[in-house]
Amino acid sequence: MKECSKSIARRLQDSLFVRRYFVGHGLDLGGKPDPLALYAELFPLMRSVKTWDKEEGDAELLETVQDESVDFVHSSHCLEHLAEPRRGLAHWMRVLRPGGFLIVTVPDEDLYEQGHFPSTFNKDHKWTFTIHKCASWSTRSINVTELLAGLGQQAEIERIMLLNAGYRYHLPRYDQTLTPVAECGIEFIVRKRPLSEQESGGRRPPQDAVMGNEETVHFNQYRNDLETLKAANSDTPPFTDNRDISRA
Questions:
Q1: Helix (H, G, I), strand (E, B) or coil at 37
Q2: Per the structure, how many domains does the chain have?
Q3: Any idea what the CATH number is for the domain that residue 131 is in?
Protein backbone atom coordinates (compact mmCIF):
# COMPACT_ATOMS: atom_id res chain seq x y z
CA MET A 1 0.00 0.00 0.00
CA LYS A 2 1.69 3.19 -1.24
CA GLU A 3 5.01 2.36 0.39
CA CYS A 4 6.93 5.08 -1.46
CA SER A 5 4.34 7.65 -0.39
CA LYS A 6 4.65 6.53 3.23
CA SER A 7 8.39 7.16 3.13
CA ILE A 8 8.21 10.77 1.93
CA ALA A 9 7.40 12.50 5.25
CA ARG A 10 10.19 10.53 6.98
CA ARG A 11 12.68 11.34 4.25
CA LEU A 12 11.87 15.03 4.24
CA GLN A 13 12.92 15.11 7.91
CA ASP A 14 16.37 13.84 6.88
CA SER A 15 18.39 16.48 5.05
CA LEU A 16 20.56 13.82 3.38
CA PHE A 17 17.69 12.82 1.09
CA VAL A 18 17.24 16.44 0.04
CA ARG A 19 20.88 17.44 -0.43
CA ARG A 20 22.72 14.18 -1.21
CA TYR A 21 20.60 11.18 -2.20
CA PHE A 22 17.88 12.53 -4.49
CA VAL A 23 20.17 14.76 -6.53
CA GLY A 24 20.48 14.91 -10.32
CA HIS A 25 18.89 12.43 -12.71
CA GLY A 26 17.48 9.21 -11.30
CA LEU A 27 15.76 5.95 -12.02
CA ASP A 28 12.81 4.64 -9.98
CA LEU A 29 12.67 0.86 -10.42
CA GLY A 30 9.29 -0.82 -10.05
CA GLY A 31 7.80 2.58 -9.32
CA LYS A 32 4.21 2.03 -10.42
CA PRO A 33 1.58 2.65 -9.14
CA ASP A 34 3.26 4.85 -6.49
CA PRO A 35 6.20 6.53 -8.21
CA LEU A 36 8.79 8.78 -6.62
CA ALA A 37 8.15 11.25 -9.45
CA LEU A 38 4.92 12.30 -7.74
CA TYR A 39 7.05 14.01 -5.08
CA ALA A 40 9.90 15.37 -7.21
CA GLU A 41 9.02 18.98 -6.36
CA LEU A 42 9.78 18.28 -2.69
CA PHE A 43 13.41 17.44 -3.53
CA PRO A 44 14.67 20.58 -5.28
CA LEU A 45 18.03 19.12 -6.36
CA MET A 46 16.30 16.25 -8.18
CA ARG A 47 16.46 17.22 -11.85
CA SER A 48 14.50 14.24 -13.17
CA VAL A 49 13.44 10.72 -12.25
CA LYS A 50 12.30 8.09 -14.74
CA THR A 51 9.74 5.55 -13.54
CA TRP A 52 10.80 2.09 -14.69
CA ASP A 53 8.21 -0.67 -14.67
CA LYS A 54 7.35 -3.77 -16.69
CA GLU A 55 6.68 -1.79 -19.87
CA GLU A 56 10.26 -0.48 -19.87
CA GLY A 57 11.87 -3.92 -19.57
CA ASP A 58 13.38 -6.33 -17.08
CA ALA A 59 14.31 -4.50 -13.87
CA GLU A 60 16.80 -7.25 -13.09
CA LEU A 61 18.96 -6.59 -16.14
CA LEU A 62 18.20 -2.98 -17.20
CA GLU A 63 19.42 -3.97 -20.66
CA THR A 64 18.57 -0.63 -22.28
CA VAL A 65 20.19 1.50 -19.58
CA GLN A 66 23.79 2.53 -20.19
CA ASP A 67 26.55 2.01 -17.66
CA GLU A 68 27.13 4.91 -15.24
CA SER A 69 24.26 6.95 -16.71
CA VAL A 70 22.19 8.01 -13.65
CA ASP A 71 22.94 9.85 -10.42
CA PHE A 72 20.65 7.78 -8.21
CA VAL A 73 18.65 4.58 -8.37
CA HIS A 74 15.56 4.31 -6.17
CA SER A 75 13.56 1.15 -5.64
CA SER A 76 10.65 0.62 -3.28
CA HIS A 77 9.62 -3.02 -2.93
CA CYS A 78 10.92 -4.32 -6.23
CA LEU A 79 13.96 -6.42 -5.28
CA GLU A 80 11.86 -9.17 -3.64
CA HIS A 81 10.08 -9.75 -6.97
CA LEU A 82 13.27 -10.50 -8.94
CA ALA A 83 14.31 -14.02 -9.78
CA GLU A 84 17.96 -13.23 -8.95
CA PRO A 85 18.15 -10.20 -6.62
CA ARG A 86 21.94 -10.37 -6.36
CA ARG A 87 22.28 -10.09 -10.12
CA GLY A 88 19.65 -7.36 -10.16
CA LEU A 89 21.46 -5.33 -7.51
CA ALA A 90 24.71 -5.64 -9.46
CA HIS A 91 23.03 -4.17 -12.54
CA TRP A 92 21.48 -1.39 -10.47
CA MET A 93 24.98 -0.48 -9.34
CA ARG A 94 26.24 -0.77 -12.91
CA VAL A 95 24.02 2.05 -14.18
CA LEU A 96 25.00 4.39 -11.31
CA ARG A 97 27.59 7.06 -11.91
CA PRO A 98 30.57 6.99 -9.52
CA GLY A 99 29.54 8.91 -6.42
CA GLY A 100 25.86 8.17 -7.04
CA PHE A 101 23.45 6.57 -4.59
CA LEU A 102 21.36 3.43 -4.48
CA ILE A 103 18.27 3.84 -2.26
CA VAL A 104 16.37 0.58 -1.79
CA THR A 105 13.47 -0.56 0.38
CA VAL A 106 12.54 -4.22 0.82
CA PRO A 107 10.04 -5.88 3.18
CA ASP A 108 11.47 -7.18 6.44
CA GLU A 109 10.58 -10.87 6.71
CA ASP A 110 9.49 -10.69 10.35
CA LEU A 111 7.48 -7.48 10.04
CA TYR A 112 5.84 -8.35 6.72
CA GLU A 113 5.79 -12.10 6.03
CA GLN A 114 5.61 -12.83 9.76
CA GLY A 115 6.76 -16.43 9.68
CA HIS A 116 4.98 -17.60 6.51
CA PHE A 117 6.51 -18.22 3.09
CA PRO A 118 5.46 -18.43 0.31
CA SER A 119 3.91 -15.11 1.16
CA THR A 120 0.24 -15.01 2.01
CA PHE A 121 0.17 -11.22 1.59
CA ASN A 122 1.88 -10.97 -1.81
CA LYS A 123 2.15 -14.16 -3.82
CA ASP A 124 4.68 -12.68 -6.26
CA HIS A 125 7.34 -12.32 -3.56
CA LYS A 126 10.22 -14.64 -4.42
CA TRP A 127 12.51 -13.84 -1.48
CA THR A 128 12.40 -12.60 2.10
CA PHE A 129 14.89 -10.20 3.67
CA THR A 130 16.41 -9.57 7.08
CA ILE A 131 19.17 -7.19 8.10
CA HIS A 132 21.13 -10.07 9.62
CA LYS A 133 20.32 -13.44 11.16
CA CYS A 134 22.43 -16.50 11.80
CA ALA A 135 19.34 -18.59 11.02
CA SER A 136 15.90 -17.75 9.61
CA TRP A 137 12.52 -19.46 9.53
CA SER A 138 12.39 -18.61 5.79
CA THR A 139 14.05 -20.95 3.29
CA ARG A 140 14.33 -18.00 0.88
CA SER A 141 15.85 -15.53 3.33
CA ILE A 142 18.56 -13.07 2.27
CA ASN A 143 20.73 -11.24 4.80
CA VAL A 144 21.02 -7.63 3.64
CA THR A 145 24.50 -7.34 5.18
CA GLU A 146 25.71 -10.28 3.08
CA LEU A 147 23.87 -9.04 -0.01
CA LEU A 148 25.65 -5.69 0.14
CA ALA A 149 29.00 -7.27 0.95
CA GLY A 150 28.64 -9.11 -2.36
CA LEU A 151 28.84 -5.80 -4.22
CA GLY A 152 32.52 -5.62 -3.35
CA GLN A 153 34.83 -2.64 -3.06
CA GLN A 154 32.60 -0.38 -5.16
CA ALA A 155 29.95 -0.26 -2.43
CA GLU A 156 30.16 2.26 0.39
CA ILE A 157 27.29 1.35 2.73
CA GLU A 158 25.80 4.56 4.11
CA ARG A 159 22.98 3.03 6.12
CA ILE A 160 20.84 -0.02 6.79
CA MET A 161 17.67 0.80 8.69
CA LEU A 162 14.75 -1.24 10.03
CA LEU A 163 11.56 0.69 9.27
CA ASN A 164 9.51 -0.27 12.32
CA ALA A 165 8.47 3.13 13.74
CA GLY A 166 4.80 2.57 12.84
CA TYR A 167 4.77 -1.17 13.47
CA ARG A 168 2.65 -2.55 16.34
CA TYR A 169 4.27 -5.68 17.72
CA HIS A 170 1.31 -6.59 19.96
CA LEU A 171 -1.12 -7.21 17.08
CA PRO A 172 -1.96 -10.71 15.80
CA ARG A 173 -0.70 -11.66 12.34
CA TYR A 174 -1.90 -9.02 9.92
CA ASP A 175 -0.50 -7.18 6.90
CA GLN A 176 0.28 -3.91 8.64
CA THR A 177 1.33 -2.25 5.36
CA LEU A 178 -2.42 -1.90 4.76
CA THR A 179 -2.38 0.79 7.45
CA PRO A 180 -1.27 4.34 6.58
CA VAL A 181 1.64 4.30 9.04
CA ALA A 182 3.49 0.95 9.04
CA GLU A 183 6.35 0.53 6.54
CA CYS A 184 7.40 -2.98 7.68
CA GLY A 185 10.60 -2.79 5.72
CA ILE A 186 14.35 -2.39 5.53
CA GLU A 187 15.91 0.61 3.83
CA PHE A 188 19.51 0.51 2.70
CA ILE A 189 21.52 3.20 0.99
CA VAL A 190 24.76 2.57 -0.86
CA ARG A 191 27.15 5.05 -2.46
CA LYS A 192 29.08 3.88 -5.51
CA ARG A 193 32.75 4.53 -4.86
CA PRO A 194 34.77 6.10 -7.69
CA LEU A 195 37.62 3.98 -8.96
CA SER A 196 40.17 6.19 -7.19
CA GLU A 197 38.56 5.37 -3.82
CA GLN A 198 38.45 1.68 -4.62
CA GLU A 199 42.15 1.68 -5.47
CA SER A 200 43.17 3.69 -2.40
CA GLY A 201 41.04 1.66 -0.02
CA GLY A 202 38.74 4.46 1.07
CA ARG A 203 37.63 8.06 0.82
CA ARG A 204 40.10 10.83 1.59
CA PRO A 205 39.93 14.67 1.61
CA PRO A 206 40.48 16.13 -1.88
CA GLN A 207 44.10 17.21 -2.41
CA ASP A 208 43.07 20.26 -4.45
CA ALA A 209 40.52 21.58 -1.93
CA VAL A 210 40.63 25.37 -1.52
CA MET A 211 38.91 27.25 1.31
CA GLY A 212 37.77 30.83 1.17
CA ASN A 213 38.98 33.40 3.71
CA GLU A 214 35.76 33.32 5.79
CA GLU A 215 35.89 29.53 6.14
CA THR A 216 39.61 29.64 6.94
CA VAL A 217 39.29 32.13 9.81
CA HIS A 218 36.33 30.24 11.30
CA PHE A 219 38.02 26.84 11.21
CA ASN A 220 41.20 28.33 12.64
CA GLN A 221 39.12 29.90 15.40
CA TYR A 222 37.79 26.46 16.35
CA ARG A 223 41.39 25.29 16.73
CA ASN A 224 42.36 28.41 18.67
CA ASP A 225 39.39 28.00 21.02
CA LEU A 226 40.48 24.45 21.82
CA GLU A 227 44.03 25.55 22.52
CA THR A 228 42.74 28.37 24.78
CA LEU A 229 40.60 25.92 26.77
CA LYS A 230 43.52 23.55 27.21
CA ALA A 231 45.81 26.36 28.37
CA ALA A 232 43.24 27.73 30.84
CA ASN A 233 42.78 24.32 32.44
CA SER A 234 46.33 23.00 32.30
CA ASP A 235 46.40 22.38 36.08
CA THR A 236 42.90 20.88 36.33
CA PRO A 237 42.41 17.30 35.14
CA PRO A 238 39.05 16.82 33.39
CA PHE A 239 36.02 15.71 35.41
CA THR A 240 37.58 16.38 38.81
CA ASP A 241 36.01 19.74 39.74
CA ASN A 242 33.16 18.85 42.12
CA ARG A 243 32.73 22.24 43.74
CA ASP A 244 29.20 23.52 44.35
CA ILE A 245 27.90 24.79 40.99
CA SER A 246 25.74 27.43 42.70
CA ARG A 247 28.80 29.36 43.87
CA ALA A 248 29.13 32.99 42.70
A1: helix
A2: 1
A3: 3.40.50.150
